[in-house]
Amino acid sequence: MAGFYEDIGGPLSRGQLISMTVWLNEQAGIPLSQVRPETVNGDVQLGQEIYERECSECHGAKGEGGTGTALGNQAMLSMTTDTFLRHAIASGRQDTEMPAFADKLTPEEINGITAFLRSRATGWDVQKPVLRKPPAVEDYVINPEGDPPEFTLKDGLYVMSADLYKAMQEKRRMVILDTRVMSLWQLSHIEGAVPLPYYYDYGNVGALADDLPKNGTWIVTYCECPRAAAESVNKRLVDLGFENTAVLWEGAFGWVGLGYPVSHGDTTVAEKHSIEYR
Q1: In the CATH hierarchy, which top-level class contains the domain 137-264?
Q2: Of 1, 88, 105, 112, which residue is the least packed, with the fewest Cβ within 10 Å?
Q3: Which is more confidently placed, 145 or 84?
Q4: Is 161 buried (19+), middle (13-18) or exposed (0-12) by CB count in 10 A?
Q5: Which residues pair with 194 in a beta bridge?
Q6: Are 87 and 36 in contact (CB under 8 A)?
Q7: Mean pLDDT of 76-95
Q8: Distance (Å, rounded) from C-alpha 78 to C-alpha 84?
Q9: In contact, 198 and 232? CB cutoff 8 Å
């Protein structure tokens, strides 16, 4: 599950996420009064001691995650109310390995853990990733002076990772599109890939698709799952008149699993870049 919050490269604002959460809550038929966003007061030092003893084995000594959720996630903590944090600690999480601590810890201790987690919202030795700028329009085509690749497509649509990697090594001319949620492109992507998320509006004048070459240059799309989003984007591009399009058969997960390289995002704090398409 990718992050959709705009602060980590996703397409949704805080207000949109809250609205969607309220809608999902209504669909589930759970009264909002059960999770009112109230501040939980607790002893942070006590909470840290309890966390290290009871929680760090699953969630990591510094909230980096393990068998449990990565709690050292600033975006997650900024979007999660004290009430929900306390509820999750006390009652556990259904269909997960997160146990209920209501019968093991006192209310004071649970409040302490809640307060401790809230105190980590501004940092927990986990650096906030930088939002990188997508490639400029003039850089969409990889190896613009190279020869086109000679792909043999599976079922007339799919290119295999080995063939794509070979074409990249041979400096072949093509465009690679990452159709996943933008936050996943920020995390890591095939070198040179241009982010064109599946939810992007391709029909608007000035859309990124208008900047892609329509001269027969090969365009390869990929996603994570491994092909659903990439196939959707591929179909839209074909409908817009693009030729020589292909979908990566194994997807991003398969690409990495086969040992092919990816470009990783930055992990140091720096100025946040806005993500804009012409």
Answers
A1: alpha beta
A2: 1
A3: 145
A4: buried
A5: 177
A6: no
A7: 83
A8: 12
A9: yes
Place of tokens 């501004």: 122
Three-state secondary-structure class, residue 75: helix
For domain 36-122, give its CATH number from 1.10.760.10, 3.40.50.2000, 2.60.40.60, 3.40.50.1000. Answer: 1.10.760.10
| pTM score over 0.70 | no
Alpha-carbon Rg for the chain, nearest whole angstrom, is 22
Question: What is d(CA 187, CA 8) in angstroms, rounded to the nearest whole number?
Answer: 9
pLDDT per position as a tens digit, 141-157? 999 999 999 999 999 99
Sign of CA dihedral 148, 150, 156, 160: negative
Domain locations along the chain: 36-122, 137-264
- Residue 268: predicted pLDDT: 36
**In 164-266, at which residue ranges do the beta strands (DSSP E only) sit?**
174-178, 188-189, 194-195, 218-222, 245-248, 263-264
